[in-house]
Write a structure and sequence with these properties.
Length: 690
């Protein structure tokens, strides 16, 4: 972890954000985002230097050590600018606005994000990482600052005029409307096929991101169309990721992305959202194929998360850094000699060969030789090889615990936690691992208890006992979907009621009744220079795509038309954007696929402890039906379901037997009272590849 306790503390010392605290003893006179900083800029007639990053960002550390800890840079900044630091994870709304500026001005984005703007927050300069001194054709930070200061004094009107034009142009770039039809889904699939890497899986060449939202769409597209290539692309990508250096072969969990085509060399950060999204994708693949390999990979991710990212409250921390002891990836590298020292003998040799570890300065373990091949070359049974490799892995994990760990960012972010809640709930539901469901329920309880305003609204960040930052669209959308998943895994009716309450609040606070879609920031939130509606998926599904997905799910569960109306009126609002670059809107595509294909809504009226009821529920969980939703109506839930799912009011256990009511599309089947009859109607071929 960069930063230190040397020097006079600046105004960041009282902040909760680990990223801001890392800069609390810089010689730069940093301010947190707020009116105090902008008032100072106005009073002293200075431009604002805005630096946005996050605590586990490698290049943020590099720029901090080169520049923000340097007295010379600090002197230039303090004399000519008001310097403001923002944690992008704590304030994704601010980051999104100014990242859009950076993309418009430079054609590229990333972190650290560097913006210079007027005291009225209008930007006129944008960059990402800048070296301290000019080198190799890249203008250094000191030269940039001096040039901007000169222009501020001599050509201020040009700078301000340019800033206004930038904001006006971005404000005019509203979402492109279009017609949300199934043809868009086929276009999205075709584009993913063009981008697919047939040699190593994944999309494009390098850097290569796992893109789990694309994988989930592909699996569901396969279920809809029966196109085997869609499933093959998803499966190959997941297998390559699991075997590559991007996956921590010793301690499990996935790194942020690979810098190479073969998934070998990762950027070593571990983000909570990546763990959640990859676990969801592995679970989806297991549900679709029945292959235990994928469930095992999801189990490994959960093992890492529950071991290393779990908070005492029962929620989950944000991330682990790429760096330890000032070196990126040092914690994760191994030499052959280190393996032999830890284990010794033939087992060390097996592991070194299996995981591609050489005699040099340090290698990234990856699955270089499969257990099957090792079995053929050594004559050792494959099961024994797997057992021995696992024993070595456990020993190396124990040894690695003695190393200096990367910094862990211990913020609890509502939206990222909600993703992990959904991942645990789905995996628990479809694997029968009740511990995952319990963990999802516990984490959801923390979010609902600790990250609330007095009026019931959500808050985005929890740290050191303090909840702060008004909830944004993603917080509401992700949590609504997560609670729907927890409901179908636990059948707790209060969870479903809470999902409905939050969905109603999301529609009211963020919805655009005239233009469709949802704003990132609520009408009563802090108003920035732009009020955005984001639909493009980055590493995470956008707030709008998740809102659409969650509302379609909630409509299928409850039958309440207001959720269908709120979602269906919004698909066209973004169809033009999605049509321009379909694969960059994969979660929107998944939501559109769910909304535009035949759905199956099942209500089981019976007591949860009745073996017949349990058998029906187990039957439903044993096969892959992505468009099926399930309600359980028993004595405990009847009153709540009458409120939130009124179509269940007249459904009851017939003759005292557990009774299943299945509606498919707009037609309902006759109720059935045996698991065998439910299996028969669910097994109808119409359920598949519609």
């Amino acid at each position: 972890m960069m930063g230190g306790s040397e020097g006079r503390a600046n105004r960041l010392v009282g902040e909760k954000s680990p990223y801001l605290r890392q800069h609390a003893h810089n010689p730069v006179d940093w301010y947190p985002w707020g009116e105090e900083a902008f008032k100072k800029a106005r009073d002293e007639d200075k431009p604002v230097f805005l630096s946005i990053g996050y605590s586990t960002c490698h290049w943020c550390h590099v720029m901090a050590e080169e520049s923000f800890e340097d007295a010379g840079v600090a002197e230039v900044l303090n004399e000519g600018f008001v310097a403001v630091k923002v944690d992008r994870e704590e304030r994704p709304d601010i980051d999104a606005v100014y990242m859009q500026v950076c993309l418009a001005l430079t054609g590229r984005g990333g972190w650290p994000l560097t913006i210079v703007m007027t005291p009225d927050r209008l930007p006129f300069f944008a960059a990402t990482y800048l070296p301290k001194e000019t080198r190799l054709g890249v203008t250094g930070l000191i030269d940039v600052l001096k040039k901007i200061r000169h222009l501020w004094e001599t050509r201020r009107d040009d700078l301000v005029g340019s800033a206004r034009e930038i904001v006006d142009d971005l404000g005019a770039g509203a979402s492109l409307r279009g017609k949300a039809e199934t043809a868009l889904l086929r276009e999205g699939y075709a584009e993913m096929k063009r981008r697919y890497d047939p040699s190593y899986g994944g999309f494009d060449r390098s850097p290569k991101f796992p893109s789990p939202h694309m994988i989930i769409f592909l699996i569901r597209y396969w279920h809809w169309t029966g196109d085997p290539m869609a499933l093959a692309m998803a499966e190959q990508t997941l297998r390559e990721v699991r075997g590559g250096g991007i996956f921590d072969q010793i301690g499990f969990g996935v790194h942020r992305y690979a810098t190479d085509r073969k998934w070998l060399v990762p950027h070593f950060e571990k983000m909570l959202y990546d763990q959640a999204m990859l676990a969801l994708a592995f679970t989806e693949a297991h549900m679709a194929t029945g292959d235990a390999f994928y469930l095992s990979a999801a189990d490994e991710i959960f093992t890492y998360v529950q071991r290393d990212l779990a908070s005492p409250e029962g929620a989950f921390y944000t991330a682990e850094d790429a760096d330890s002891e000032g070196v990126e990836g040092k914690f994760y590298l191994w030499t052959a000699e280190e393996v032999r020292s830890a284990v010794g003998g033939e087992d060390a040799a097996l592991f070194i060969e299996a995981y591609g570890i050489g005699e040099g300065s340090g290698d990234i373990p990856h699955r270089a030789v499969s257990p099957q091949v090792l079995s053929r070359t050594t004559g050792i049974p494959e099961d024994e090889i797997r057992r021995r490799l696992e024993a070595v892995r456990e020993k190396l994990l124990s040894v690695r615990k003695g190393r200096a760990r990367p910094h862990r960012d211990e913020k609890i972010l509502l939206d990222w936690n909600a993703l992990m809640v959904a991942a645990l709930a789905r995996a628990g539901r479809y694997s029968g691992r009740t511990g995952y469901v319990a963990a999802a329920q516990g984490a959801a309880g923390v979010l609902l208890d600790r990250l609330r305003r007095p009026d019931g609204g959500l808050l985005h960040r929890y740290m050191d006992g303090e909840a702060a930052v008004s909830g944004m669209l993603a917080d509401y959308a992700y949590l609504v979907w997560a609670l729907a998943e927890v409901y179908e895994a636990s059948f707790d009716p209060e969870i479903l009621r809470e999902a409905c309450r939050l969905a109603d609040a999301m529609i009211e606070r963020f919805g655009d009744p005239s233009g469709g879609g949802f704003y990132t920031v609520s009408a009563d939130g802090e108003q920035l220079i732009l009020r955005q509606k984001e639909i493009h998926d980055g590493a995470l599904p956008s707030g709008n795509s998740m809102a659409l997905f969650a509302l379609v799910t909630l409509f299928r569960l409850t039958g309440l038309s207001r959720y269908w109306e709120a979602s269906s009126s919004s698909f066209d609002a973004f169809a033009g954007d999605a049509g321009r670059n379909p694969s960059a809107h994969a979660w929107y595509m998944a939501a559109l696929l769910a909304a535009s294909t035949k759905s199956d809504e099942l209500v089981i009226a019976g007591e949860g402890d009745d073996p017949a009821t349990r058998k029906m529920l187990d039957l439903v969980a044993s096969s892959y039906r992505p468009n099926l939703t399930v309600l359980l109506k028993d004595r405990r839930s009847a009153d709540v379901l009458a409120e939130v799912a009124p179509h269940t009011a007249l459904m009851s256990a017939q003759g005292g037997k557990a009774t299943a009511y299945l509606c498919r599309g707009t037609a309902c089947e006759q109720p059935v009272t045996s698991p065998e009859d439910l299996d028969k109607i669910l097994g109808d071929e119409e359920l598949f590849h519609k």
